[in-house]
């Protein structure tokens, strides 16, 4: 058996791939998700068959199938507890459903975890056994690989870094129902929360005053202004970075990662955000837990998901066989 099938299911498209044992991409393509509910699983299987036929690959050559889904997962049983973006409600038994078509190993995990595994194997994680990924997008997601395995916890809520309480003043409401989560101060929306909170109360000039005053300012505007030295924007980025560093610092005394990888749209701010995160991280983290720990920007972009979904088979099938 020499190939791994991989699917990264998203709200509008599903990325599919055929991988070799070392997680090199042999072929990747996309199909439309089209809100077909569970029907998407059958579409995925059909599409795999078409592409395998073209490459003369039989099902007997398949080691396993890894699937990433944007929703909360019961990892042990391969069940998704609803996925709003896919129009999936209730409990969807993804593994059981797929087993109708394929009777080899099937692993299912959430999109943040599979992206983390992708970065661990083929991206900024450099195949190290202890890696953390913090994804800053419209929300904040994350994953923790400790001793070469993803942390899931007893009910699947492990490594939900976005809901780490970092703002002790609990200034902003989170989508999860709580206040003060990392997501409320470090996502694209979080950056803007901080802008509108501080700007009226702080005596600093800003080149993006008009955008802020008209409430049209975006996270990208803030980062762009910061890069050109805008005092207020730099102040905001320093705050955002401080919160991210605090989460990274606590994770570091727990799992002591070698790489802390910052991904997602907000991470496109690049060096300037990283520089501030590192400054805070060094100040607040237990010395031995920060020694030889590197904070870096994610490398794989959109491919992190399918690489990581294939990585589930590498982690939970191939590496187990070798133990
Ligand atoms: Zn939250």
TrEMBL record:
Source organism superkingdom: Bacteria
Similarity comment: family membership: Belongs to the ROK (NagC/XylR) family.
EC number(s) reported in the record: 2.7.1.2
Biological process annotations from GO: glycolytic process
GO terms assigned for molecular function: ATP binding; glucokinase activity
Entry-linked InterPro entries: ATPase_NBD (IPR043129), ROK (IPR000600), ROK_cs (IPR049874), ROK_glcA (IPR004654)
GO cellular component, one term: cytoplasm
SUPFAM superfamilies (UniProt xref): Actin-like ATPase domain
Name of this protein: Glucokinase
Alphabetical list of Pfam families matching this protein: ROK
PROSITE patterns reported for this sequence: ROK (PS01125)
Source species taxonomy: Bacteria, Bacillati, Bacillota, Bacilli, Bacillales
NCBIfam families associated with the record: ROK_glcA_fam
UniProt keyword annotations, A-Z: ATP-binding, Kinase, Nucleotide-binding, Transferase
